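Q: Give me the 3D complex with zinc ion.
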Amino acid sequence: MKRVFVCRLGILLKALNMFRGEIFAYPLFLQKELHAATNAHFYCTDIACRYWPYLEKVAISMPELGSLLQMSPFLSVMHAKAHSTKCEIVWSGRPLDGAGTTAGEEVEMMNSYLSRCALTTKYMTKSAGNDMPTVHAIGWNLWKQISLHLSLSSRYIKTVRRTEMANKKLEDLCSELGCPENRVLEWVRDVRLWATDDSIHTSCSSQHALQHSIERFLVCIRKKQVCIITLTATRFIICGERN
Ligand SMILES: [Zn+2]
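A: Here is the predicted complex, encoded as structure tokens.
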């Protein structure tokens, strides 16, 4: 098993062989190595909500790792759907300036590509089996670099379109609800406050705690419902284009 780090463009930066299964020390080591080499600003992973408290705890006993906390962590978009609604809101990368429309799933493309090696490496000796993924990783990076101008321009066009669509959607929503845009921003702040505030449940009576719990589940169900409708609509559009 391998843990890999890729940049936003999908280029493999570092990888290691895992000998003890999934433990936080592996991403911590890679983060430390990369932070020293690249001074990256964002840290996106599918377990940001669990990894970051671990890093904060480790940084107390090992102050030399404190600089890693300057990075901005966020959850990858699709993996976040499997987390709780509050977690998704708190750890989402969407409101972070500079994170843009990063999906954070680039590492899955790399994993999918490298997983093909498993078909052949399982019949090889250990040394050859270890070298094969490295050769493929070099090939992957070369291919990414050669096609960089195409992927960057395509991403730029997509991002501009998405920004226009999001602005239009916000304008339509504001006019439909008859409220100014700053009111929407207030609602966004309220939702983030609701997501970060856990004190309500511990300080309230059992009846209030139950009420808040029901509200939380209701928000979660509504959100999943919207997500399913949006995904289904997108699928229909794709099917329509193909036909
Ligand atoms: Zn989570």
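A quick observation: Residues 49, 83, 87 surround zinc ion (CB under 6 Å).
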